[in-house]
Design brief:
Layout (H helix, E strand, L loop, with lengths): L9 E3 L2 E3 L3 E3 L9 H9 L3 E5 L14 H20 L4 E5 L7 H11 L1 E3 L13 H9 L5 E5 L5 E5 L2 H7 L17
Parallel strand pairs: 3-6, 4-5
Antiparallel strand pairs: 1-2, 7-8
Helix pairs in contact: 1-2
Length: 182
């Protein structure tokens, strides 16, 4: 639903979006340069997630910080090139942001943050298998969860999510600069 506040351009400081949409920054290979650049090229704000941006790098297991920083820089350059000077390209750096909840609320009030709807696009960096699972999901397959930063989000009701909902603690085999696991 388009509200009165969403009609027309959206101004953020000295920048203006012709489409008042902020694409959600979804981590670990979903929101990288291809998706963020394509969203920006259409006049909205494309967001790159910094969460394990370098997961595909050869040295990601041995040097995760170096791999992530290198990949993030490359993804930003790629997004800016794809955006061809339109819209905006942003980077979601969750662990480095002060007043995260207030910042998210302000962004949502100023525009619309949409994440999942962008997953099925050809520009999205997620695997085709993941895209197929999302596209084929039914409303009953979706549950609301608390993200690692305490904000609500939607997730597929997978065995992983079901185990977490039961209070089970699952630790990743590889954790590159993850938020606290305790």
């Amino acid at each position: 639903m388009i509200t009165e506040a969403m009609k027309g351009n959206m101004k953020i400081r000295d920048f203006e979006l012709t489409i008042p949409i902020i694409q959600g920054g979804m981590g670990i290979g979903v929101s990288l340069g291809n998706l963020a650049g394509a969203v920006a090229a259409n006049g909205a704000m494309g967001v790159i997630s910094s969460v394990n941006a370098g997961y595909r790098e050869e040295d990601s297991a041995r040097q995760p910080v170096t791999a992530n920083l290198r990949a993030l820089a490359r993804e930003i350059k790629s997004a800016l090139k794809t955006a061809i000077g339109k819209g905006m390209v942003a980077v979601n750096i969750m662990v480095a942001v002060n007043h995260y909840e207030e910042t998210v609320k302000a962004a949502i009030e100023a525009g619309v943050q949409i994440g999942t709807r962008f997953i099925a696009t050809k520009e999205c960096d997620a695997s085709s298998i993941y895209k197929d699972v999302i596209v084929n999901a039914k409303p009953e397959d979706i549950v609301v969860v608390q993200s690692p930063v305490g904000m609500p989000g939607r997730a597929l009701n997978t065995p992983l999510i079901q185990n977490l909902a039961k209070g089970n603690t699952l630790y990743p085999e590889i954790c590159n600069e993850c938020s606290s696991l305790s």
